[in-house]
Structures are given as C-alpha cells and as structure tokens.
Amino acid sequence: MKKSLFIITILFFGFSKASLLFDIQTGLNEYELKNYDFAKNYFISYINNNPNDKDGYFWLAKTYEKIDSKKNASLMLENYKKAYELTSIDSNIEKITFDLSKNQNIEDYFDMSIMYFEQGNLKASEQYANMMLEINSKSPSAYFIKAKIALAKNNKQLAKEYINQAIIFNNKYLETNLAKSLNIKEIPEMTQKMYNVSVLEAYFRGDIDIAIKYLEKNKEKNPQDIESNIMLFELYIKNNDISKAQKLSLELLKSDSNNIAVKLLCAKLYKLTNQNDKIENTLLSAYKLNPNNKETLLALGNHYLNKKDYKSSKKYFEQLVNINDEMYEAYFGYIYSLIELNEAQKAMPLIRKAITLNPKNSEMYYLLSLICKMNAQYDDAVSYIIEAIKKDENPKYFIELAKLNYTLKKYSQSLVNLKDALSMSEFSLDRETIDEYMLKNYIKLEDEKNTANYLKGKLKLDKNRIIYKYNLYKLCKLQGNEKEANSYLKEIKKFKPNSLIDYIDLSEIKYEQDGLEFAIKTLNNGLKEYPNAKELYCKKLEFYFMEQKQDEIKKTMEKMSKI
Questions:
Q1: Residue 8 DSSP label
Q2: Average pLDDT over residues 446-461
Q3: Between 36-49 and 54-68, two packed helices, what is the crossing angle to 10 degrees?
Q4: What b/e readout covers 264-300, taking b as 16+ CB neighbours within 10 angstroms?
Q5: pTM value?
C-alpha cells in the first residue's frame, strides 16, 4: 500500500473514555446548543479525566474559538497542538507547523525578501521566503517569491513547481505575469505532499468543512484510497452528517470488510443512530481480527460497561491494562468493573496506580466514594465525593453527594446538592433521580408547599412507580387530607412488586410505615427473584446503617462478597 497521510496508528477512529461520568457527548450537546461556557468547563474536566483522548482537546479548542477566537488564540493553538500530538502520525509524513506566534512578522519577511530580490541578493531573498514558510507552510506569496528566485537562477522547472504551489493556495497567482511567462494557463493539481499538509492543517485548526472538501475531492479522483476515505468517514460523523457517513460506511465495508478502523467507526455510527443490536457484533468481529488492538479493547470495555455487563467489561479492560499499563482510561474501566463485581480489595492498588498516572483526575475519588458507600462508610464516602467535586464540578458528583447526605439525614444539605446539579446542564443530569430525591427531602422536611409544587410540575419520575403514589400519600398527610391519604395507602398495601426497582421502592415505604424488620423482609423477597442484585444488598446496608446495626452490616457485606 502506498505511503500517504493516512498511515496513522490511531488517527480519527478512536473510541473515547471508559467513564460513565465524563462522556464527551455531553460536552458536544452543550456545544451544539451554543452553551459554550459550560461546554468549555466540561471539556476541561473531560480531558483531566481522559488525558489520552485527542477529541477532548480538539473540541476544547473549538469551544475557545467560539467564545472568542482572538482572545483565546493561544489556548486554541495549545489544544489543537495537543490533539495533533496524540495522533501518532507516521514518521514519513511531514508534520504541520503550529507556531503561529510570528504571524505578525510574515508581511515584514515578505517585504525583506522582495527588497533583497530586487537588489539581486537571491540568497538573502530565499532565506526570508523560507522564514515565511516556517510560519505558514501554505503561504502563496512565499512560493511566488521562490518561483521568481528559481527563474532568476535559470531553473525553469523548479520555478514552475513553486508557482504551481502558489496558485493552488491562491488562484489569483494564475493571473500573474510570472505564471504567464512560464506558460501556466490553468490551476494545477495538488501534489500528494501539498494535499497531505492541507488536510492536516485544516483539521487540526478546527476547519472540519475544509478538510472534508479536500477529502471529498480526493475521493472523486482516488475512490480506492481506503485511508483517506476512513478519515472522511470519521469527519462525517464528527460533523454530524449521518446520511453521508452511512453511505460511505457501506462503501468501505464492501471494499475492505476486514479493516479494524472501519469496524470501529461503524460501531460508533451505530451508537449514534441507536442501532444498538449491531454494535456488539461489530466490535467482536474487530476483536477477532486483532485481540490486542487497544482501540478495540477500549471500545468493547466501554460497550459492556454501559450495558452493566461488568464481567465482560472487566475482561477487556484487564486485557488492555496488561497490554498498556500506562493508560489511565484502561484503569478507570477496570477499577469500575471490579467495584461493581464486589472486588474492591483488588481495585485499591489499581486506584493508587491510576492516581499516579493522572493526578488531575477526579474519578478515582468518586470510585473511592463508591467503595466506602458499599462498606456502609457513609462519612468517608462523603469526604471522597467532596474531593472529587473540588477537582471537577460534575453534576453527577453533586447528585451522588445528595444521595449520601439523604442517607445521613442531612435533608437540607441534600437539597442544596441537588439544586447545584440542576443549575448546571440538562444533558448531564439523571432527572428521575433528582426528582425522586427532591421529593424525598421535601417530605422529610415536611415542606408541604414545595412538595405540592414539585408533584404538580413536569416530573421525570415514573408515575407508575409505587414511590410516586407514596409521595402523593405523604402530601395528603401534610395537607391534612386523611381520606385521600387513606385511599393511596390502601393502593400501596395491595401493591405487588414486579421489578428490582419495585422492591427497592417498596422497602423504603415499609421502612417508614412498618419499620426495619418489614423493610428487610421485602428486600429478602427481592433477593429470591434477583439473587445477584447488588442494589438490594446496598439498600439493606443503608437501613442497617441508619439503625446502627453493625453486626448486620458485617453479615450483609460477607454475603455481597460471595455474589
């Protein structure tokens, strides 16, 4: 296969991040809604927790551009450059120049180059022309001067090459006397080298549309150029042009059905278009082609993590850690999986390693909070989640803190945490959990007005859940409406749980109405149907903690360890 720009190890077809907490799509949603300040802060947090994901740096640069391109020029440049550095481009490909700090000097260099040319000092003239190209490798005026110098040295062939480059980067140079004297009458084709640099420069300065135009033009002339078409496929996805991406995916699969990069991009496209049934098979087929491909392992780990299939996610993240023990994202997924599988002890040394790899991360403190919560160490869990918030004000951290404070009977503080989360972004929130805990806190505080207003609002809480009916019962009690309250209570007493969440909801009602014994009995009934449901064990721990039943906490934790 020919050498080209696209002989790249992990260019545009990477899957992002194992984290369920910092999903890049949240930032992209805010970017699309023009909530640039929130998007900026989110992308900063995202790259703190995804230090190897070039897309985070790319979109942070784009966001700085949208906020104020002049004021944020250095920050844009810094993040575009970081994205480029994470792109493992083949050593034979000429790297693009990012140092734009001397842009203000390029016109001065042009004047100096012309002055020396007119004086007949061709060497000095060429030096200044080359300095212009160091600032901007696509400077048409620099190539124009170099063409004049080459012609002055009687090297007509070299002069034609330089004037052709000038014309490509600025078609007006076709009208110059120099072009006419060299008998150049039409815009020439781009050389492969010029094409390579142009695509890279366009993309890594945020000009996705320009990069797409170059790639589409190349596709017309070289339809079998798989590498450039893979990049085009990725840019269609990044530009949210789903119809073109779908069409190109079919072409690529037909021409090279065993290309791992194509399969990974197809899986990403299936996720965006909610074709979830196709994702797993596509990723597994990529895995069969190369079981040690890091991008495939990360994608599979993420996929199973999102499906809550923690045994499978553990398998792929563990393999990824063994292949690359310096990859923070792999550690996060592996640790998260271990915690969900009740293997917290195995996770602890890995957490220390992950913090060493990425000291800026907040997620490890979140995971430590989860471990403490699973051990009924709620005060320690609060301390760790507060440490996570100090590093990144992720709305999901505030929701977790609200839940912990509710368990600790700090209802007013729990409300503050929920309101902090609500003040952030719609896209990053679990609104059903927020609504559920808002109502719980208002009821515990016997706040009739806010309970009523919240129940009358546009709740995300499923109105078929028994906890919703219980909230109505509690409101009637607060309002002194005993008749209506009793009607709700009769309905609640007849309720038969049919799902995991039903048992959790009913156990809370039983705890308030009848006490600890009946709440635990409800959860034990749930465990007969869902014997491996960690959520039911955690609810038991919560009740035992509130009643200070240390022996029962210990017994429950022992049972959890055997799941």
A1: B
A2: 89
A3: 160
A4: bbbbbbbbeeeeeeebbebbebbbeeeeebbbbbbbb
A5: 0.69
